[in-house]
């Protein structure tokens, strides 16, 4: 039975990797005179660095990379029900770490602990040489952390460019008077924010849509705008809460490509929650598997997908009556 499950998982991983590589080789086709429909559905071509995405490039030398984030003995409960129990987890600089597990396993609680939304009952978060019982949310950007959420949180009436510029708000140091006058330091900050936003928009191949109201874009492109707003903050650590939720297969492959390309270009460390097993296995350098608030496995995708505890607790592969193996897209 375990051998059958392993063969299925190998197929999932290989199929997803092929999809991502196909997207990486695609041409954008966003000419200046493209019609409205073509502009609303651009074919993404992530940067050339993406060609290595299926190889999980940083996993091989990950052991030599510095620890940039550590959860030490984190426990959390709600009304006497344990959400997290003695969680120990380290994140290495420049890696893509995926957190997976069944619903209610504690995945979102981990991101909420890291981003300061929750305060742990026990344990602490180590970040930039400091230990926090609760990470200060007001200083999150200054600590080098940016986050996206499962549900979109854009300003639908503002343009794509203005939405992305908003991601630089934490860098404003000019006074209220300077901002009203629009001179001196305020002007320099505004020009810097716009230039950085344009760079990230171009990187994510949204330039043709920069002037459009974000709320008029298809869902998959709005998720890309949200990624742009997070990246414009120049985070050292990027937290992604189900970045591919609700996307089509092609949109997932595009987003996976952009996440990897962002890591490769900007050196961003990525921690993500994702339900699509194929995406996780092809995208991640390491995978942490949670069940009932505990870490039951941690390793490379190849190691995790062969772990009997993962197969039993999470993957949910079943053999049908005719002997074929049935698998859902993800959990």
UniProtKB/TrEMBL annotation:
SUPFAM superfamilies: P-loop containing nucleoside triphosphate hydrolases (SSF52540). Residues 69-317 form the ABC transporter domain. SMART domains: AAA. GO terms for molecular function: ATP binding; ATP hydrolysis activity. Pfam families: ABC_tran (PF00005), BCA_ABC_TP_C (PF12399). InterPro entries: AAA+_ATPase, ABC_AA/LPS_Transport, ABC_transporter-like_ATP-bd, BCA_ABC_TP_C, P-loop_NTPase. Keywords: ATP-binding, Nucleotide-binding, Transport. It comes from the Bacteria. GO terms for cellular component: plasma membrane. Transmembrane segments: none annotated. Gene3D superfamilies: P-loop containing nucleotide triphosphate hydrolases. PANTHER family: ABC TRANSPORTER ATP-BINDING PROTEIN, CONSERVED COMPONENT OF ABC TRANSPORTER FOR NATURAL AMINO ACIDS-RELATED. This is ABC transporter ATP-binding protein. It comes from Rhizobium quercicola.
